[in-house]
Write a structure and sequence with these properties.
The chain is of the alpha/beta class. The chain has five helices and five strands; from the N terminus they run βαβαβαβαβα. It has a five-stranded parallel sheet, with helices on both faces.
């Protein structure tokens, strides 16, 4: 059985921190699905199509990474895609506490064995988040060091 991981997020936009997690996870899984979750009540800076394009261009060099969009619960999407793993990046202790609660909830609400795998962000990237990138962009700052080339618009 293939080891399939879903890396869910809004990726608004993808950052070098996200890309770091993907790059380091590539050898661990047969397939990684970078899954853009949609939330109709959330206002995004970039459209779903833009976010998907940014990610596709950023991961094009990896043959085992694909990009998709989904709605609803991540565990339901994992079941649909036959994924056994949810991949998450951790920047700090607050991320861990938040992600741990989600992982426990996911295990409680599904009958399938879907394991959450945490990777720590690489040193020097732990401060980067999509919300910080958006704030820098809105205020005309130099965001290019925080995002992959595809997002440098």
């Amino acid at each position: 059985m293939d080891r399939i991981a879903v890396f869910p997020g809004s990726f608004d936009p993808i950052t070098i921190g996200h890309l770091d997690i993907i790059e380091r996870a590539v050898p661990l899984f047969d397939k990684i699905i970078v899954a853009i979750g949609t939330n109709s009540s959330k206002k995004y800076m970039f459209s779903e199509e833009q976010r998907k394009k940014f990610i596709e261009q950023s991961v094009a060099k990896f043959s085992n990474v694909e990009v998709d969009v989904y709605e609803g619960l991540t565990v339901d999407y994992c079941i649909e895609k036959n994924a056994q793993f949810i991949l998450r990046g951790l920047r700090n202790p607050a991320d861990f506490e938040f992600e741990k609660a989600i992982a426990h909830t996911n295990r409680a609400i599904t009958k399938k064995d879907i394991e959450t795998i945490f990777l720590l962000t690489s040193s020097g990237k732990a401060y980067i988040s999509s919300s910080i990138v958006r704030d820098v962009m809105r205020n005309g700052g130099n965001y290019t060091i925080l995002v992959p080339d595809a997002v440098r618009i």
